[in-house]
Design brief:
Number of strands: 8
Largest sheet: 8 strands, parallel, barrel
Order of helices and strands: HEHEHEHEHHEHEHEHHHHEH
CATH class: Alpha Beta
Length: about 300
């Protein structure tokens, strides 16, 4: 029989996961950094998107604003959107020197074709430019529901290769998962990662508070299809009920998983903010301070 934890233990674990977590923001709103910093613990990692059609350098003012606000700037590096090695080197030099960047999230990018020499994240990592730039850590994406265009076995092998290569280059490696609407699958995936890479920290991605319409749009774009189809089979009422713009259900499931597994390597949660970073930060603040966060009880 599964161990049952009381509301106090669950709330404390949830607050710890959020306090040790992160969120993302768009590169065009450096002014949001001060608002976020007023709500979250000093040093909270804030990831900055690498959007299609935008140069890496466009994120520098936001990365600098994040650092100035006392937070940890973490740029996304989308391999297929990097125009060339020279551009990447220049960006990393400026990010490390000017914004104190120590960590980056390395993704392939969902573009159909590459604009430069890197066809995927592993190709960019093999270049060794990241380790040479002064970065100390890499966050790598994990996909609890798989990827719409990459077979499961290939996805698993690619993550293993990236973790091994990062470690060989002296870079710390962690995994940030894609968000999902299937808490049971998320904790199952975390268990799989714990068995494969017990020493690699895992941060569980969750959809931050937003409207149901915005959440559905981003879910379809991000390939979160399995749980959407399962909800859809129950009718749109079930979809709207589950996607109620509050990630408390997801957080509760992860907190219970962490409490029940001594070998758990989940260290925090990551909120995808969908352009509403301040709103996500306020929700995180509520959980940390136990104001207004509603969690399912076991």
């Amino acid at each position: 029989m599964a161990t049952t934890f009381g509301p106090e233990a669950l709330a404390a674990c949830a607050a710890e996961l959020v306090a040790g977590g992160s969120l993302e923001m768009s590169p065009g709103h450096p002014e949001d950094a001060a608002t976020i910093a007023a709500l979250l613990p000093a040093g909270t990692p804030v990831f900055v998107n690498h959007l299609p059609g935008r140069a890496l350098a466009a994120s520098l003012p936001t990365l600098q604003a994040i650092r100035a606000a006392g937070l940890e700037p973490v740029p996304h590096l989308a391999a297929r959107r990097v125009q060339g090695r020279t551009q990447l080197v220049e960006f990393l030099q400026q990010a490390v020197a000017g914004a104190g960047v120590r960590k980056a999230l390395l993704i392939g990018g969902d573009d159909a074709t590459s604009v430069g020499p890197y066809g995927d994240a592993l190709t960019l990592l093999r270049d060794a430019v990241l380790a040479e730039s002064g970065l100390r850590e890499l966050a790598l994406p994990g996909y609890p529901e798989g990827h719409p265009r990459i077979a499961a076995e290939r996805l698993e092998r690619a993550l293993d290769d990236k973790v091994q290569l990062a470690q060989q280059q002296g870079l710390g490696a962690s995994v940030v998962t894609q968000f999902s609407f299937a808490p049971a699958r998320v904790v199952e995936y975390c268990g799989e990662l714990a068995r494969r890479w017990p020493a690699v920290p895992v941060v569980v991605g969750m959809a931050g508070p937003t409207s149901a319409a915005a959440l559905l749009k981003f879910a379809q774009r991000c390939g979160v299809s399995t749980s959407l189809r399962a909800l859809g089979a129950q009718g749109m009422g079930a979809v709207k009920l589950f996607m109620h713009t509050d990630p408390g259900d997801q957080l509760s499931a992860v907190a219970q998983y962490r409490l029940r597994h001594d070998d758990c390597n989940v260290v925090g949660v990551h909120l995808f903010s969908f352009g509403s970073a301040a709103r996500a930060a306020r929700w995180m603040n509520d959980v940390i301070t136990a104001r207004g966060a509603t969690l399912n009880r076991p």
